[in-house]
Design brief:
Blueprint lengths: L1 H21 L14 E5 L3 H14 L3 E5 L1 H6 L1 H9 L14 H8 L1 H17 L7 E2 L8 H14 L4 E2 L11 H14 L1
Parallel strand pairs: 1-2, 3-4
């Protein structure tokens, strides 16, 4: 357990640094800029709880993008997290590639993943926010238009979150550099 705790600590240190960089220069600043860490998938109850504990202890804003499978597996935990005010957003039901889903199943392939997640969240009364994050950053205009359809059916407007950083992300170094340039320029 302690090794996982140590693994997450550097991530929160980076978040705190970014949050400090984004803080207003004076008390008279009219807009506050914020950064939040995002956690995807939600496959481990232990890791979910550790992330929440560290975020609360360090006052670091976080957002979870769990899969629908995780919502089903830990509904009471996700409901408590959402009710505590920590944002929870759509990351599809099964973590399937939305572009592949569109290519093989058309609209149904994407709608079932995004709309299915919403159905599960509603079924368990899990509070959620209006964001969706395509697994692996895989999306295109077809996927985006279908997400717009899901928005209309659900009565909520979705915003896509696309920062992808991980061992399989081809341009994770470039994404980090772009984020840091944006942080410094804004």
């Amino acid at each position: 357990m302690k090794s996982r705790h140590r693994t997450l600590r550097p991530l929160f240190a980076v978040a705190l640094l970014l949050a400090a960089l984004l803080a207003p220069a004076s008390a008279s600043a009219t807009a506050t800029k914020q950064v939040a860490l995002t956690f995807d998938d939600g496959d481990s109850e232990l890791h979910i709880r550790q992330a929440v504990a560290i975020a609360v202890a360090t006052q670091t804003p976080i957002t979870f993008f769990p899969t629908g499978r995780s919502l089903r597996r830990f509904p009471n935990l996700w409901k408590a997290i959402g009710e505590a005010g920590i944002p929870i957003a759509d990351h599809t039901v099964t973590h399937a590639s939305l572009t592949k889903g569109f290519a093989t199943k058309g609209r149904v392939g994407v709608t079932s993943e995004l709309g299915g997640w919403l159905t599960i969240a509603k079924q368990y009364n899990i509070p959620y926010v209006k964001y969706w994050r395509p697994p692996g950053g895989a999306w295109n205009n077809d996927v985006r238009s279908i997400a717009g359809y899901v928005d209309g059916v659900s009565g909520r407007r979705y915003a896509v979150v696309l920062l992808v950083n991980g061992p399989r992300a081809q341009s994770s170094g470039a994404a980090q550099d772009a984020l840091l340039r944006w942080v410094h320029s804004n």
